[in-house]
Amino acid sequence: MKHKTPRYLRTGLQIFFFLYAPAAFSAAFGGVKTAFSLIGARQPLTLSPMIQLFLGLVISVMLFGRFFCGTACAFGSLSDWLYALSARLQKRLGKSLPALPDRVEQRLRYGKYLVLGAVLLLCLAGQQRALGAISPWDAFAMALAMRWQWAGHAAAWALLLLILLGMLSIPRFFCRFLCPLGAIFSLVPQCGLVRITKPRDGCGSCRACSRACPAKLPLGTCDVVHAGDCLSCGKCTTVCPRTNAAYRLMGVWRLPLSGLLLESVLLAALLQLTLLAA
Question: For residue 231, how many other CB atoms are within 10 A of its CB?
Fold first, then answer.
């Protein structure tokens, strides 16, 4: 039960944020697109609620890592649930989907930067509205709002379907390979107020943390998880048989479950302030 409690807590928090702020991802990235559209049009930037949300999430990444990606993003949570369902079905059927070679996965990680660059270039060229016709994030937002607008959005729905199929096949498929917001967050410098650490002198040889990591990071060879691709999902902390991998304040003081709750409260407050400003 010791390992299951934080797992259940994280799942509960994912459900909370999925219901409370399902469009947070689209709104935050909408702030990025709006900012670059204004720059392209040579108009002054204004701190709209979407831009404020994006800046707030950047600050949260600097302080707490990519907690938003690992726990609060509806798209990320959906990815976790779909892959968990797929894995259970594969286990029941006694068959496994073929895994991507490590070399291919390493190359696919650059995909999210290509997506980000393409979107920003289109925004600078004044084509932000045209993105809606092909944006799977807009299609996802419409699905959450139960607005099934097919006319003019066929490409967006088709891309969303392909992404959902990828989520069933590969852990955090969208987050690792296609997410433009994740591309930005992976480049944000982190001061490490809250970090996942796992001192190697307390490790065994099981490498359970590396196997559980959806980002496929080589956790068995590091003391502090500071890679930009770390989603701060905390899965490595729930599978460690020695409880060596843990959230720690400033990399030193182990945080109990209250640390995860504190991050959630702060993020929920940020989202609420943004809603009030809208």
Answer: 28
Cα–Cα dist 175/235, whole Å: 15
- E strands in the chain: 194-197, 224-225, 246-249, 253-254
Q: Give the three-class secondary structure for 248.
A: strand
Contact residues for 19 (Cβ-Cβ < 8 A; gap 6+): none
Taking only the tens place, the pLDDT of each residue in 129-185 is 778 788 888 888 888 777 787 777 888 899 999 999 999 999 999 999 999 999 999
Global confidence as pTM: 0.87
Residue whose tokens read 């369902």: 85
Q: How far apart are alpha carbons 199 and 255 in whole angstroms?
A: 15
30-64 pLDDT, tens digit per residue, is 999 999 999 999 999 888 888 988 998 998 888 88
DSSP code at position 22: T
Nearest to 195 by CA among 147, 156, 145, 250: 250
Dump the DSSP string for 176-231: HHT-HHHHHHHHS----SEEEE--GGG--S--HHHHH-TT---GGG-SEE--TT--
Query: How large is the C-alpha radius of gyration of the chain?
Result: 19
- Residue 188's region, left for phi above 0, alpha for psi from -120 to 50, else beta, is beta
Cα 227 to Cα 213: distance, rounded to the nearest angstrom: 12
